[in-house]
Every structure is written in structure tokens, then in C-alpha cells.
Amino acid sequence: MTVKRTLASAATAVLLLAGALAAAASPAGAADCPSGEFCTWENADFSGQRANWSGDDHWWESWIADEDSSWANHGISGPGIKDHVKVYSSANLGGHMTICLAPGQEVNYNGAANDNGDSHTWAMGC
């Protein structure tokens, strides 16, 4: 009888742990942005299609231009490295800067920048 209780207790513990791990799992969101890259999503909360770059892009593809709603800077950071990302409202870094992200910064929504990006550049600061 003791062996059965021990096995039952162990099985219950495993199921509880599995349930806790499943509950702790959340949508990947900004974690989907690869290391070393700047990412933007077409919807808020890091959802929808994602575009990502490791360098500058002065002319975003038409499907993401003026459709950006969340952003993540997973770029490499360090002394003398361009590790901030500036997003601009027009191609070729024209118009105005809509948002600037510091290293590691993730923004799930910004009303002023929403659906307004057309190009970006890596910079030493904002």
C-alpha cells in the first residue's frame, strides 16, 4: 500500500509541476526577436507579422511601412557600438523620428509612433 501511495503522490506532483509550467508559459512576444536585431510587429503586443534587421534599413518593405505597432531592440550593446534604434516616418530617414529604442527596450504599443515608421537607423543614442 505504501508503494502505491508513493507512486500516486509522485504522479500528482509531476502533473502539478507540468500544469504550473504550462501556466507560466506566455506568448513569446518580444522574445521572438532574435539577439542582435531590431524588430517591429504589425500589431500591438508583439503580434502579427514581424520584420527584423541587424543593420540599417532606409526603405522598409511595403507590408510593414506605416504598419508598425510594437518594437524591440535586441541589438548588441557596448562602448562605441551603435546600439540605439531610431525609427523615422519617411523613407531615407526623412520626416520625423517616431520612436527611439535604447538597448534591450521593448515597446508593446506607442500611440504617437503607431503605424508611422518607414525607415530606421542604428545610432549611438537617442
So what's the overall shape? globular
Report the end-to-end length measured between terminal Cα atoms.
68 Å
Which percent bin holds the helix content?
A: 10-25%
What's the overall average pLDDT, rounded?
85
The overall number of domains is: 1
Radius of gyration: 21 Å
Report the strand count: 7
Features:
about 130 residues; alpha+beta; Gamma-B Crystallin, domain 1; 4-stranded antiparallel beta sheet; 3-stranded antiparallel beta sheet; 1 helix; 7 strands; disordered N terminus
Provide a compact summary of the structure:
A hairpin with a 3-residue loop joins strand 1 and strand 2.
Structure description:
The chain has 126 residues and is an alpha+beta fold. The protein is 18% helix and 31% strand. It has a single domain (29-123), classed as Crystallins (Gamma-B Crystallin, domain 1, Sandwich). The protein is built from 1 helix and 7 strands; from the N terminus they run αβββββββ.
List the helices and strands and how they pair.
Blueprint: H1 2-24, E1 38-43, E2 47-53, E3 70-73, E4 84-90, E5 94-101, E6 106-107, E7 119-123
Antiparallel strand pairs: 1-2, 1-3, 3-6, 4-5, 4-7
